[in-house]
Specification:
With about 425 residues, the chain is of the alpha/beta class. About 20% of the residues lie in helices and about 25% in strands. Strands 15, 16, 18, 19, 21, 23, 25, 26, 28, 29, 30 and 31 form a 12-stranded parallel β-sheet that branches. Strands 1, 4, 5, 6, 8, 9, 10, 11 and 12 form a 9-stranded mixed β-sheet that branches. It has a 6-stranded parallel β-sheet with strand order 14-17-20-22-24-27, with no helix packed on it.
């Protein structure tokens, strides 16, 4: 089955989402392009799942701030997809006064030509923003054994989370008999993971019928509830780990979990095989006073301070006397001497001035601007930020991308505060003066 399977299936990865609940991490990058686990991007997991399942023909649908995502994927060499009918970036484009991608189904509908030209037997629809290790071959086996027109991958969840998912009701034959989009009171605990296998002729027929004349746009909200009465739609239950790192706090928590003795995804397990673009950075260096406890540290990092329960990306420098705990630090950030930083996400290319204290005090006030996103004591610092020395930042604070020293009007940033940059003066002047 495997050799035939390589040419029979095409994957369409939905990687255009803005991921607004990730707040500053998706300020000007697509959610699938966000760094995760130190050296990976979120999209690496679904791409690796494809090649580990012998699927090498992949279309990637981008939309929101795609530059960093397309630069990362390139021609697909890291995933052995740099071949004819390998990876293809499918960016939205204006045509005949039609709009940009308006939803998951509409995005695939607008690229039916790409699918039809490759003549696959099956089309696998995949979200580009989930963290999971999944072999798709058992799902195809399930699909074929039941002669299904469509197979939906589902997983058991706590019913309290149902408002975030499409919920599925199935019978004893695994046939889906009801689909509820984000219900308050679900009839089952089976959530759709947004992973679908379609017979190609069924996908084309459905999208031409519903996305064309009727203008429906989303698989979960619009398409699935309609087709369960018209086609044989099966549910395949996935029992492994998966995570939609949809919020700042979920992203931080899932990242720190990777440092556990028994993490939910063990990237050191040879059977996992998460692939990504090769780093040209030198090895990690620990100085004479460098100390590392229970942390992931990526290539090029120089650790002269102390880190504990941290995920450190490439080329991060932590100077002598700095103490960093329960933090996620992205590429090329400099943490200067004698800083104390707890419970914080710091995006790439930041400078944290000498003697700063970040993540101090008690959790009292949610962030005033985004209380639903930042309320549990976590701080988030956007990319290209420069924090002046000896600044104290309490809890639930946000420092927006490109904020510079002059934007800090006080040395103490109280809980719940967001610091905004004067972009015109700070960022563009800095760029054009280089």
């Amino acid at each position: 089955m495997d050799k035939k399977f390589k040419t029979r299936a095409l994957a369409m990865i939905l990687a255009g989402g803005g991921g607004t609940r990730l707040d500053l991490l998706t300020y000007d990058r697509a959610k699938p392009a966000v760094t995760f686990g130190g050296k990976y991007r979120i999209v690496d997991f679904v791409l690796s799942n494809c090649v580990n399942s012998d699927i090498y023909t992949v279309g990637i649908l981008t939309q929101y701030f795609p530059r960093s995502l397309t630069e990362h994927i390139g021609i697909g060499k890291a995933w052995d997809m740099d071949r004819e009918n390998g990876v293809t970036i499918l960016s939205p484009y204006q045509k005949f006064n039609k709009p940009w991608y308006e939803g998951t189904a509409n995005a695939v509908y607008q690229n039916l030509g790409y699918i039809i030209e490759r003549r696959p037997e099956y089309v696998l629809i995949l979200p580009g923003d989930q963290i999971c290790v999944m072999d798709y071959r058992p799902i195809f086996k399930h699909h074929e054994e039941r002669n299904a027109d469509v197979t939906v991958v589902v997983s058991e969840i706590d019913k309290k989370q149902s408002k975030r998912f499409g919920m599925v009701v199935k019978n004893r034959k695994d046939e889906i008999i009801e689909f509820e989009e984000k219900p308050d009171f679900p009839k089952s605990n089976l959530a759709s993971l947004g992973i679908y296998i379609f017979k190609t002729e069924v996908l084309v027929e459905v999208l031409l019928k519903y996305c064309g004349p009727q203008g429906l746009s989303d698989f979960g909200r619009d398409i699935l509830p309609k087709i369960i009465q018209e086609y044989k739609v099966s549910a395949h239950t996935f029992g492994g780990f998966w995570k939609d790192v949809g919020t700042v706090e979920e992203y931080w928590r899932s990242s720190i979990e990777l440092t556990n003795e028994n993490p939910p995804i063990d990237v050191y397990d040879p059977s996992v095989k998460i692939l990504t673009t090769a780093s040209t950075s030198p090895p990690v260096k620990f100085g004479p006073h460098g100390k590392c406890i229970n942390s992931l540290v990526s290539s090029g990092a120089i650790i002269n301070g102390s880190i504990e329960n941290c995920v450190i990306s490439a080329d991060v420098i932590i100077e002598e006397g700095a103490v960093v705990k329960n933090c996620v630090i992205l590429n090329k950030t400099l943490i200067q001497k004698n800083c104390v930083i707890h419970d914080t996400i710091i995006d790439k290319s930041c400078v944290i001035g000498e003697g700063c204290q970040i993540g101090v005090g008690e959790v009292e006030i949610p962030n005033y601007e985004v209380p639903a996103l930042v309320s549990q004591g976590l701080n988030i610092i956007g990319k290209f930020v420069n924090i002046p020395s000896r600044t104290i930042i309490e809890r639930n604070c946000r420092i927006l991308p490109r904020a510079q020293v002059v934007d800090f009007k006080t040395s103490i940033i109280k809980s719940g505060i967001s610091i905004h940059p004067n972009v015109k003066e700070n960022f563009y002047h800095k760029i054009f003066s280089l």
